Amino acid sequence: MAMKAQTYPSPPFSTRGLGPCELSCSYSTYYGHYHLWVFWSICGNDEVQCVKPHLVATANGALIKNKIVYFLRLLLDPLLPRFLVQFWGLVKIGNKMYLTTCDQPFALKYFGNLEVKQLCEYRKHCLDYLIPVDDDDEISVDQVQLGPPGRVFCSGLPEYTFDVRHYTRREYPQRDCAVDRVKGYWALPIYHPTQHLPSGVLEIVSTNEFCLRPNGIQAKLRV
């Protein structure tokens, strides 16, 4: 397997707006054709001081972020090209719990610049969403409107479609942005090793119709 990985100071495309603050990244290439960039925020850690405001993550949020970054670096082989993978993690605002992908790790795998542009636009659009996941009456009335990450978190079951056009806007709040940029969609619950409830959701979108190899991903998740 002709694969090499190293840390780069910056990717060959703009990362402006892909996170709330400065991003670290790593780069891998497979036979010189597939390019994988993994990004994570350097802010919000105890050792890094940042003047920008941050949402308050759950108690084990930093540990989960580190594990997700490690997992994303393993995605070069099981997933075919042209995808964005982003983690939706838990944050607390007041007494309420929400899922957000802002300030969470994500990865881009691509061939060309057009794919990067489309996937980055989708990523930026998602940063504005906070998905409520508290088990209260207001949410339980209609979980359809939570969107795929919210439904997957609450049910603990994965969700996918070959083409995001199969969703309605009510089922998938990001649909209007997604249909012009991505096609295949998959959301997977991420569980803490010692807990029965999900600790977040891994969202995978591709500029192709659904082109994932599920067995490879499931094997990685079991590691």
TrEMBL record:
The domain of life for this entry's organism is Eukaryota
Query: Which InterPro entries does the record match to this protein?
Result: NLP (IPR045012)
Q: Output one GO MF annotation.
A: DNA-binding transcription factor activity
Protein name, entry field: Uncharacterized protein
